[in-house]
Amino acid sequence: MAKSESVKWTREHFLIALNVYRKLPFGKLHSRNPLIMDVAAKLGRTPSSLAMKLSNFSSLDPVLKARGIRGLPGVTKQDRLMWEEFQSDINTLGPESEQLLHDLFTTDEDREVDFLQRDRVRVELPVPMAAAPKGPTESIVSVKARRGQQFFRQSILNAYGTQCCISGINVPRLLVASHIKPWHAFPEERMNPRNGLCLSSLHDAAFDSGLISVDGHRRIVLSRKLRGYFPQPVLEMNFLAFEGKTFRLPDKVAVPHDDFLAYHRDVIFVE
């Protein structure tokens, strides 16, 4: 497919671009970014065409607006409509956009498109799913669920710079896109980027089981139940060292919702 600035922006192209926007920091939305170059080539577009569209989306991002950051001024009506639709129907369009991105790079349904290595787009074996769906349509649902989890994981990890927001650990295979309001109990919030934290596997397990949480000022708090296992040098190094410290916030649309954090603190946290 010939690369051209005049290639039509189809609905599929928009969904792929919105997917990519979720996975790149604001400072990387330029045509020299290898990830943008890889995706643009697959779309038959120039890198500058895709980069400009991503910058248009940044003009619509409320988190960037609140920080006084402005994208390009050339936002179109279609940009705005697709942005609003994507945000309002993220549970459907997140996995759909991930499938479209997947199909650009591979026909192997057992592999996923990875944006965590910043030098190029990679096609990798997936991180094991937390809970595989079961039932007569398991194989179909499983693919959709994997695409959804891949979209959520890649979005959250990239929003946090591929670092645990508590400890700073930056090994992708040791990181989890942790749901603040649980996946099983709140299906409507499964793909919501504001329902995610990037945590190490250890801190994710502690957060998920209510052994740690955050207070109203986003500072790490430890439960009495966890403290009951002290003294243990390794535990103290991984938890006590971060008590009272504010966890690191992400850029863009993935800033955690205060109401979700309050729910975790009030319902899941084991005081």
Q: Topology of this structure?
A:
Elements: H1 11-23, H2 34-43, H3 47-60, H4 62-66, H5 77-88, H6 90-105, E1 112-114, E2 122-124, H7 138-159, E3 175-179, E4 196-200, H8 201-208, E5 212-214, E6 220-222, H9 224-227, H10 233-238, H11 258-268
Antiparallel strand pairs: 1-2, 3-4, 5-6
Q: Which runs of at least 5 residues are low in confidence (pLDDT < 50)?
A: 130-140
Order of helices and strands: HHHHHHEEHEEHEEHHH
Classify the oligomer: single chain
Average pLDDT rating: 89
Widest β-sheet, arrangement of strands: 1-2
- Helix count equals 11
**Strand fraction band?**
5-15%
Structural class: mainly alpha
Overall shape: globular
Radius of gyration: 19 Å
Straight-line N-to-C gap? 59 Å
What's the count of strands? 6
Largest sheet: 2 strands, antiparallel
The helix content, as a percent range, equals 40-55%
Would you mind describing this structure in some detail?
- The protein is mainly alpha-helical.
- Helices cover 45% and strands 8% of the residues.
- It is built from eleven helices and six strands.
- It has a two-stranded antiparallel sheet with strand order 1-2.
- Strand 1 and strand 2 form a beta hairpin.
- Helix 1 packs across helix 6.
- The protein is globular, with a radius of gyration of 19 Å.
